[in-house]
């Protein structure tokens, strides 16, 4: 018991000293890096892309965090106890993580100084992720909600790359307000630290403590009003390093559900990135072109101050971190229910921000769930189209169209066929379907063309939005066009063979009766 108590005492002293050392170094180094950035002119200037700050700000903050992080870890070499001995024994494993992370830092520095396009960024990130994978830091299993884990096999490499590159760019995209990305990284680091303490992973405890101290010291200068920005060097480095530490933590845990801890603890950057990709895809906009519609931007549009937005999102990060710690010891907890509640909360939050894409998705989902009649109506339309495929006379076409209009609650329809014989029909609305003249009206015009792409006629119908809600799915209109054209051609051939056209008539009705030269319109009620 004495040796164990001494080991615990030495460990706690070392952990505390490491955090304080990293905090102090970051606090001291950051002003030096800021001065260098100003002297070299490495500034984030307003007007360069989607920026919201008003004055040039130095942007080499990642270099300050990196320096403080490494210097703090180097201090472990001058202390002799069981913790530092274990650290030195694990040095090869540390270098496996720090090597690719340093490559990402250099990529960020290049982007801060010279600028790098998306191709260069993704190429170097993929290279760093592959190096990490080759060195043994891999996602080899995933948590199975129904128990145990799923071994990935050949999917290990692509999922490792997807995770590392996704998290790297997630923190980069989140870096839009003073202190936001660095604060989110701090909460994620602290969550990984708590998990490492619970699972007794000394190496990860040391790495997360040093990183947390470095970030905390930097936030003194990065929180609003910021005097230095993370820059791509900082956001990319933090994202990649945290992604690597998350893999190392979850894959070496003996608890299967621990694999889910990083995903939940990185909740804010993951949600922001996924929703950014979804809304840009829905709007047909370039996926990797910056904009001012991230979550923090939408909160600013609601009139919130920048400080309030950042503090609110800090609270969201803290909540995600605390929620993820439920997975540390999941016994007796309704994990499935809790995840469902979390997912619903995220959806409600996104919807409340006023995104047009979210509003349209909600409308589409509401139509699908609240209007099951649409499915029945489409099936009935398909039955009418099938009837038209077998219709051989104008009378049969009349009957099929009358049923179709009743199904769709269409207010008025008109069909013109150039023949021979010429046919013109208007189907008038019943009183119950008549428009009050106030509701918005839409109309559809379907050209009737044959196999040789010759226009033979036209079918038009209209109704109100309120009554029909577009009445018919667009994919059915093409089927209607083809079936109606073929039916009219069959009816024309039959009519021509039974009752040839009169030489003085411009057309005949569907019953074959001669019409006057003005071509009388046959009108029937529905």
Alpha-beta content class = alpha+beta
What topology, given as strand order, has the largest sheet?
Answer: 7-8-5-6-9
Number of DSSP helices? 19
Q: What is the count of β-strands?
A: 9
- How many domains would you count in the coordinates? 2
Radius of gyration: 34 Å
Mean pLDDT: 83
Q: Please provide the ordered H/E string of secondary-structure elements.
A: HEEHHHHEEHHHHHHHHHHHHEEEEHHE
Task: Spell out the blueprint of helices and strands.
Elements: H1 2-40, E1 43-44, E2 57-58, H2 61-74, H3 82-89, H4 91-113, H5 118-134, E3 141-143, E4 149-151, H6 156-174, H7 180-198, H8 202-222, H9 231-251, H10 261-265, H11 267-282, H12 295-301, H13 306-324, H14 335-352, H15 356-370, H16 373-390, H17 394-408, E5 412-417, E6 423-428, E7 441-449, E8 455-464, H18 465-468, H19 474-498, E9 522-525
Parallel strand pairs: 6-9
Antiparallel strand pairs: 1-2, 3-4, 5-6, 5-8, 7-8
Helix pairs in contact: 1-2, 1-8, 2-8, 2-9, 4-5, 4-9, 5-6, 6-7, 6-9, 6-11, 7-8, 7-9, 7-13, 16-17, 16-19
Describe the structure.
The chain is α+β, with helices and mostly antiparallel strands. The chain has two domains: 2-254, no CATH class; 378-525, Beta-Lactamase (2-Layer Sandwich), CATH 3.30.450. The chain is 61% helix and 9% strand. It is built from 19 helices and nine strands. The strands form three sheets. It has a five-stranded mixed beta sheet with strand order 7-8-5-6-9. A two-stranded antiparallel ribbon has the order 1-2. Strands 3-4 form a two-stranded antiparallel ribbon. A hairpin with a 5-residue loop joins strand 3 and strand 4. Helix 2 (61-74) packs across helix 9 and helix 5 (118-134) packs across helix 6 (156-174). The protein is elongated, with a radius of gyration of 34 Å. The N and C termini lie far apart (94 Å). The model is unreliable at 501-526 (pLDDT under 50).
């Amino acid at each position: 018991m004495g040796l164990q108590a001494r080991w615990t005492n030495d460990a706690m002293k070392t952990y505390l000293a490491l955090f304080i050392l990293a905090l102090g170094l970051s606090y001291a180094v950051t002003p030096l890096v800021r001065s260098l950035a100003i002297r070299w002119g490495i500034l984030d200037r307003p007007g360069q892309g989607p920026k919201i700050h008003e004055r040039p700000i130095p942007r080499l903050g990642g270099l300050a965090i990196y320096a403080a992080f490494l210097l703090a870890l180097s201090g472990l070499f001058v202390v002799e106890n069981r913790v530092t001995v274990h650290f030195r024994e694990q040095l090869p494993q540390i270098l496996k993580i720090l090597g690719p992370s340093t490559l990402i830092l250099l990529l960020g520095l290049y982007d801060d100084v010279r600028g790098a396009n998306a191709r260069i960024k993704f190429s170097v990130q993929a290279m760093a992720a592959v190096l990490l994978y080759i060195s043994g830091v891999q996602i080899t299993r995933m948590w199975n909600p129904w128990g145990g884990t799923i071994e990935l096999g050949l999917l290990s490499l692509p999922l490792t790359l997807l995770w590392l590159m996704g998290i790297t760019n997630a923190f980069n995209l989140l870096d839009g307000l003073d202190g936001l990305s660095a604060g989110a990284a701090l909460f994620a680091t602290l969550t990984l630290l708590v998990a490492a303490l619970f699972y007794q992973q000394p190496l990860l405890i040391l790495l997360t403590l040093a990183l947390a101290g470095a970030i905390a010291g930097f936030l003194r200068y990065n929180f609003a009003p910021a005097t230095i920005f993370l820059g791509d060097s900082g956001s990319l480095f933090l994202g990649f390093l945290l992604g690597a530490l998350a893999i190392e933590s979850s894959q070496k845990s003996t608890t299967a559900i621990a694999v889910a801890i990083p995903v939940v603890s990185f909740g804010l950057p993951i949600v922001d990135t996924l929703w950014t990709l979804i809304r840009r895809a829905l709007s047909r906009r370039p996926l990797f072109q910056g904009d001012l519609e991230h979550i923090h931007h939408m909160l600013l549009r609601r009139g919130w101050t920048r400080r309030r937005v950042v503090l609110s999102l800090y609270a969201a990060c803290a909540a995600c971190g605390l929620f993820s710690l439920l997975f540390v010891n999941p016994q007796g907890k309704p994990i499935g229910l809790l995840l469902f509640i979390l997912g619903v909360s995220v959806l409600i939050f996104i919807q409340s921000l006023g995104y047009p894409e979210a509003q349209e998705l909600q409308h589409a989902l509401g139509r699908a769930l609240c209007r099951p009649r649409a499915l029945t109506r489409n099936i009935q339309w398909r039955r009418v189209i099938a009837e038209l495929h077998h219709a051989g006379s104008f009378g049969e076409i009349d009957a099929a169209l009358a049923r179709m209009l009743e199904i769709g609650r269409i207010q008025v329809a008109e069909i013109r066929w150039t023949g021979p014989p010429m046919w013109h029909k208007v189907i008038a609305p019943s009183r119950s379907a008549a428009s009050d003249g106030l509701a918005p009206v839409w109309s559809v015009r379907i050209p009737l063309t044959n196999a040789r792409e010759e226009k033979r006629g036209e079918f038009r119908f209209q109704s109100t939005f309120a009554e029909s809600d577009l009445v018919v799915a667009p994919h059915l209109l093409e089927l209607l066009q083809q079936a109606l054209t073929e039916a009219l051609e069959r009816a024309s051939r039959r009519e021509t063979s039974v009752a040839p056209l009169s030489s003085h008539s411009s057309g005949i009705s569907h019953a074959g009766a001669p019409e006057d030269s003005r071509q009388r319109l046959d009108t029937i009620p529905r």
